[in-house]
Amino acid sequence: MPVKSSNGSLANKFARVGYNAIVKRNSIFLTTIFVSAFAAEMAFDTVSDRIWDNINKGRQWKDISAKYTTE
Amino acid sequence: MFRLSAQSTRKAVQRLAVQARYQSTNSAAASSMNAKNASVAVAGVATVGALAYLSMESVDANMAADGLHAPAYPWEHKKNLTTFDHAAIRRGYQVYKEVCAACHSLDRIAWRNLIGVSHTEDEVKAMAEEHEYTDGPNDVGDMFQRPGKPSDYMPNPYANEEQARAGNAGAYPPDLSLMIKARHGGADYVFSLLTGYQDPPAGVEIREGLNFNPYFPGGAIGMARVLYDGVVEYEDGTPATTSQMAKDVTIFLSWAAEPEMDDRKKMGMKALTLLVVLTGLSVYLKRHKWAAIKTRKILYNPPAPRKH
What we know:
Distance between the termini of chain A: 64 Å
CATH architecture of chain A: Up-down Bundle
Low-confidence stretches of chain A: none
Organism (chain B): Mortierella polycephala
Number of strands of chain B: 4
Largest sheet of chain A: none
Structural class of chain B: mainly alpha
GO molecular function (chain B): heme binding; metal ion binding; quinol-cytochrome-c reductase activity
EC number (chain B): 7.1.1.8
Strand content of chain B: under 5%
Order of helices and strands of chain B: HHHHHEEHHHEEHH
CATH class of the largest domain in chain B: Mainly Alpha
CATH topology of chain A: Single alpha-helices involved in coiled-coils or other helix-helix interfaces
Order of helices and strands of chain A: HHH
Number of helices of chain A: 3
Radius of gyration of chain B: 34 Å
Helix content of chain A: 55-70%
Family (chain B): Belongs to the cytochrome c family.
Oligomer: heterodimer
CATH class of chain A: Mainly Alpha
CATH superfamily of the largest domain in chain B: Cytochrome c-like domain
Strand content of chain A: under 5%
InterPro entries (chain B): Cyt_c-like_dom, Cyt_c-like_dom_sf, Cyt_c1, Cyt_c1_TM_anchor_C
Shape of chain A: elongated
Structural class of chain A: mainly alpha
């Protein structure tokens, strides 16, 4: 059932576009959930790893390993 | 004391029971006696109980018997979001290898555990190969010697506990794998012990072959001071002072006792971040859903009075 807009406000317009694009078909809805979960986790891990490495700069093995590897 | 109190309690209870039997026929005087006895009995039991509790609760600060309490050092790796200093783990391994390993085993650490923590894979393979391990049986049922592999565990300096005791005047050098977790005070205690050797104070007799260390319970420890300035030579140029070596080897042993600490803290940071976000989300959702209910007003509209 498409969103019925009671008034033509901007929020309602967005909700209608979003509903029609994502929720209307179950296949697209499920795909969106899985893909966005995957993307969100990747983004979250990347950002938090970067913060972690920044907090612990110079303390971890990857920071000092270059001194001991002879390539 | 307990038996006395039990007897008096029993007597009070018996008296209560006797009086209760006459209560229906007796007047109000008996019932007031009753209450008096009961309160005396309760007070007696409470006093005895409190005395017993106080006598069990002993506040004991016997330095000689329990060891001097180690001061709390500001270990970097004890902060919530800080990993081990892996350069210190590497130096600490060197101290363990060159000093501690002469007497102390490290049973729960395998060579492979050092890979990616303090040494490269090639270094670990080379270090493991320096030691001989008994393997087998082979095709004809004989055990044989082979050079170590990264999957082997750290070699034990003694074949068994008896040999270890015989080599150390009866004192058994404990395994160090979990030493930081196994001792009250943890890293602070180990660091204090390693740096706390001194001459016994006047009046303290230390048996031949033992050494005085105020941080060791009892004060007399079988292990002598081993860390002196310059005992090892660090490859990264760090001055090998006694306290530097004690700090490094304590950090190495902290890692050995808790090798998962770095990952655990990182996961904790991620988990807490997610939980904060989800908590905020659920608070918002609850308020959103309840907004209509919370803001409604109930209006009483009295019917118009009837005209007669």
